[in-house]
Amino acid sequence: MSRIGLKPIEIPAGVDVKVDGTTVTVKGPKGELTRNVHPNMAVAVEGNEVIVKRPNDEKENKSLHGLTRTLIHNMMQTEGNMKSYVGKIRKDLELALAAIDELERMKAPLGDGAAQESFAEAETEAAEDEEK
Q1: CA 69, CA 78: separation in Å to the nearest integer?
Q2: pLDDT digits (tens, 9 = 90+) for 52-95
């Protein structure tokens, strides 16, 4: 049984959902999205919820049930959620790049042979300590 498919989708404020046969159209403040769902799936708007129903419990229909419900739910998500997610990834990437840059600055300059040798020795000793 698809537990995800059984959950009704709450329609957020400011979002309009229209179902015309197998075509689902979601219109909100950020724009409009249209998707054709599989003909086996029945989509209906009941009050402030979208309900996805399947005709029987065949394996394919069970899979399509949860998939269809998730696709329609994702159509109703605001663009702001995606922007904050992308912003978080960008921030994490910037932090990782800053850490790499800091490590690069900590290495000895290439022109100083004695410093390079001592740095290499320190790395070798650290590796030997890890093995013990």
Answers
A1: 17
A2: 999 999 999 999 999 999 999 988 876 544 455 566 677 777 77
Cα-Cα-Cα-Cα dihedral sign, residues 88, 90, 92, 94: negative
97, 37 Cβ separation under 8 angstroms: no
Q: Is the pTM of this model over 0.70?
A: no
What is residue 35's three-state secondary structure? strand
Task: Write out the DSSP string of 66-85.
Answer: HHHHHHHHHHTS-HHHHHHH
Longest dimension (CA), the chain: 77
Beta carbons of 72 and 50 less than 8 angstroms apart: yes
- What 3-state class would DSSP assign to 33? strand
Structure tokens at 113: 């042979």
